[in-house]
Amino acid sequence: MVQECKIIKDLPSGGQKNVQLAEHPTEGRVVIKRGAIKSFTSLERIKREVELLSELKSEYYPQQHHFNIDVKTKEFEIVESYIEGKTLRDSMAEFKEPRKIFRLLDSLIKGLSIIWDKNIVHRDLKPENIIIHPSGLPCIIDLGIARFLDLETLTKTISPIGPCTPIYAAPEQLNNNKNLIDPRTDFFALGIISLELFLGVHPFDPNIVGNHYSIVENILQNNYVLETGFVKNNNSISELANKTLKTQPYQRFRNYQMLIDFISQQEQL
User: In terms of CATH, what superfamily is 2-81?
Assistant: First the structure.
């Protein structure tokens, strides 16, 4: 399939993958990802991601078209649909109002519930991994470090930190408490993203928290802000943060239906 594609341009690389935008004669615009297989673990993560995307067939996720491994060169190539739109990072100014934040959050949970129901945790939710389609629908990308709770863990127990983007990770990821990983780990990331959209800055940023710790240290110590000198506290956003950003998973929303119900209540206010 790759041979039939006409390369248009290089795209920002994700992780250890080289990414290109291309045109396919029948599938239209696609994204080609190539990279080296450096270990059994990296290969297994790639295979799990590919198999999951091939199974999902959802508008909330890219569609998988092709996957191939070159045994001789130990390289892989993936072809998936190109998602039209901008990343949430580049669209943050459009989601500052609480009602827009809750509407986006509602859509994200609808998309994420598809994998949560399969006992899979994304583990890498951040503005760069959410693409906002021109229709307003979010598309969730990069499931490369997703945790498949029904499969054998791929993270070494002795690792000091679990797979994650540290400044959007829950404490259980940062401490590599593998047994605590579940959908509530993703709730934590959604809490950070929602509060960051509202404030316009990362809520654990030491520059606004007012200390000399790093963002990661503030996450571990539960130091975050609900307002800044430019943005005043909003009760609904604050309640969302306080119910998603708890240090211990058991203190957060117990399941995504409770999170959905909470959002529904805020939209009716």
Answer: Phosphorylase Kinase; domain 1 (3.30.200.20)
